[in-house]
């Protein structure tokens, strides 16, 4: 029996087109059907979890998860169902734990051993760790503090000292004045360091809470470069240039950034380096198969030899859209078929 490729979506949310699906979902379903592979979309509904599980276990060769966790009320239950589907042999695109691992902001601290992340990048999972390190980090350079949730620049703060630190000091005093710019809209707030750190505590204590502390990369003004990947192939590039106003560092559309669409060949150096790091990336992130559709965002920096280098800002693999480039649906379909083919070569008895 020819089993189906199941696309999971969730009803509602701002990411849907007039047909109720994400605009890039049906093109993938159609592209698979054109190639003789049956496919369908199911809406995850926690009340029908068992029914959905039984159906996909019986009829699904693979699932493709197309849910923005922000639109999902029962995230834990959804992930648990995906995990069980993977256990009973349905191919996970991606595995739920890969989704969590690649999508969390602490991907940065996990990848310190690669050349994609500066050494002085920290993840704080407790308020104590935050208090112990952040004043020292800020004494080194201007910083960016990132909360784990969202993808809209909310809770992503550029933090700068108002007055330079006195000579010889290695830790910023808690009463020092700081200038904080939020990536959501590039608005500026002035705080004392101590008060701002208290304000940030809920980012750490909330569900999946953490704060990432990373050096501010001034060349963000030249743009953030998003690589859209199909497993290990870069297929599309979005160049996002922040608004040309003082303090602006955000690459979100809402904040006024300008988008340009490029091809991976235009970013050869970045692509080559990233691909060379991929084996190490997959192993550091838990050894899962690479996600089907995912993105990696980079910022330009200058290395010790004065050459350009590219620093990772974040990755996403739970709800990557390609509505601006719908022809990619055919490449995605080919990639899905290749995954199924590889799996059947591995598991079928000789
Ligand atoms: N280390 C950094 N240096 C300079 N700008 C940064 C840095 N990290 C993030 N940014 C800017 O902040 C924006 C939001 O940060 P990001 O980590 O992408 O979070 P989000 O999930 O909200 O997109 C980025 O698109 C980029 O413009
Ligand atoms: Mg981002």
UniProtKB/TrEMBL annotation:
DUF6815 domain segment(s): 222-321
InterPro entries from the UniProt entry: DUF6815 (IPR049212)
Origin superkingdom: Bacteria
Entry-linked Pfam families: DUF6815
NCBIfam families named in the record: Cj0069_fam (NF033816)
Record-given protein name: DUF6815 domain-containing protein
């Amino acid at each position: 029996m020819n089993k189906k490729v199941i696309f999971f979506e969730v009803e509602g949310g701002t990411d849907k087109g007039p047909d109720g699906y994400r605009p890039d979902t049906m093109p993938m379903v159609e592209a698979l059907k054109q190639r003789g592979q049956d496919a369908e979309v199911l809406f995850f509904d926690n009340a029908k979890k068992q029914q959905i599980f039984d159906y996909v276990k019986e009829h699904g060769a693979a699932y493709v998860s197309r849910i923005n966790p922000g639109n999902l009320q029962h995230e834990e239950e959804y992930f648990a169902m995906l995990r069980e589907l993977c256990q009973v042999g349905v191919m996970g695109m991606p595995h739920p734990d890969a989704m969590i691992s690649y999508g969390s902001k602490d991907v940065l601290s996990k990848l310190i051993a690669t050349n994609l992340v500066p050494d002085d990048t920290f993840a704080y999972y407790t308020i104590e760790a935050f208090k112990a390190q952040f004043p020292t980090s800020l004494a080194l350079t201007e910083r960016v503090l990132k909360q784990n949730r969202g993808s809209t620049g909310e809770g992503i703060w550029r933090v700068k000292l108002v007055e330079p630190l006195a000579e010889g000091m290695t830790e910023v005093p808690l009463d020092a004045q700081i200038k904080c710019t939020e990536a959501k809209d590039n608005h500026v707030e002035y705080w004392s360091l101590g008060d701002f750190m208290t304000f940030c505590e809920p980012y750490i204590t909330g569900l999946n809470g953490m704060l990432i502390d990373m050096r501010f990369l001034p060349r963000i003004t030249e743009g953030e470069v998003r690589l859209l990947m199909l497993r290990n192939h870069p297929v599309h590039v979005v160049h996002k240039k922040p608004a040309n106003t003082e303090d602006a560092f955000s690459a979100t559309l809402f904040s006024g950034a300008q988008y340009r669409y490029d091809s991976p060949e235009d970013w050869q150096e970045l692509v080559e380096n990233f691909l060379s790091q991929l084996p190490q990336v997959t192993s550091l992130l838990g050894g899962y198969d690479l996600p089907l559709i995912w993105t990696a965002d980079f910022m330009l920096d200058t290395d010790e030899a004065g050459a350009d280098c590219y620093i990772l800002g974040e990755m996403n693999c739970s709800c990557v859209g390609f509505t601006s480039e719908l022809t990619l649906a055919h490449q995605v379909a080919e990639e899905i078929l290749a995954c199924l083919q590889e799996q059947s070569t591995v598991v079928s008895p000789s």
